[in-house]
Amino acid sequence: MDQALLRSYYATLYELPTPGGIVRVSLDGETVRDGEALPELLRTSFALLTAYNPRSMLLPRRVNEGRHLVMRDMLILGCYRVEPAVGYEAEAKDSVWREPAWLTHGMDRDEAIAFGRVFRQNVVIVARDGRPEIIVTDPTADELGKTFEANWRVRT
Fold first, then answer.
1. Sheet arrangement for strand 46-49
2. Residue 37 backbone class (left: φ over 0; alpha: ψ -120 to 50; beta: rest)
3. Counting beta carbons within 10 angstroms of the beta carbon of residue 19, is it exposed (0 to 12), middle (13 to 18) or buried (19 or more)?
4. Helices 109-118 and 61-77 meet at what angle, rounded to 10?
5. How many other C-beta atoms can be found within 10 angstroms of the C-beta atom of residue 132?
6. 90-92-142-103 Cα dihedral, nearest 10 degrees
7. How high is the pLDDT of residue 35?
8. Contact at 8 Å (CB) between 104 and 95?
């Protein structure tokens, strides 16, 4: 995988919905010694999925929105609870790049990979037991299923 692209996945800031409000996180944190210190959501199992801009190819907004709604419908038909989330460049103050995602509760790794492949994404984010992973879903980018370990960094 291109190292600049991988660094951008680590640095992306995600806004995740919780009952107590939005939790802002990135994947570039230090190893967490006490998982109980993390917000409750981050200690559960979920996947972050998007249908936007397959293989980093910019598509028109209407096309992206249509693809994203199809993904949501497929997730709901699969009996997943989904909530809207968003990822954006954390360090670029003037960035207009924002990519909607679906916070998909309880999704396992293999199914998240399958969704990433169907919607032609470079990677998916899967979290289990307080540990996020960046997982390759584009076999032209790297070995399918290759995992890059990460750590949550809660942003304020």
1. 147-149, 131-136, 123-128, 46-49, 98-105, 82-88, 13-18, 21-26, 153-155
2. alpha
3. exposed
4. 150
5. 24
6. 30
7. 83
8. no
Report how far apart the first and last C-alpha atoms of the chain are (Å, whole number). 30
Write out the residue range of the structural domain in which residue 53 sits: 3-155
| Count of beta carbons in the 10 Å neighbourhood of residue 152 | 24
What pLDDT, on the 0 to 100 scale, is given for residue 64?
A: 97
CA distance linking residue 73 with residue 53, whole number of Å: 18
Burial class (CB in 10 A: 0-12, 13-18, 19+), 139: exposed
pTM higher than the cut 0.90: yes
Number of domains in the chain: 1
Quick one: CA dihedral 86, 132, 111, 45, positive or negative? negative
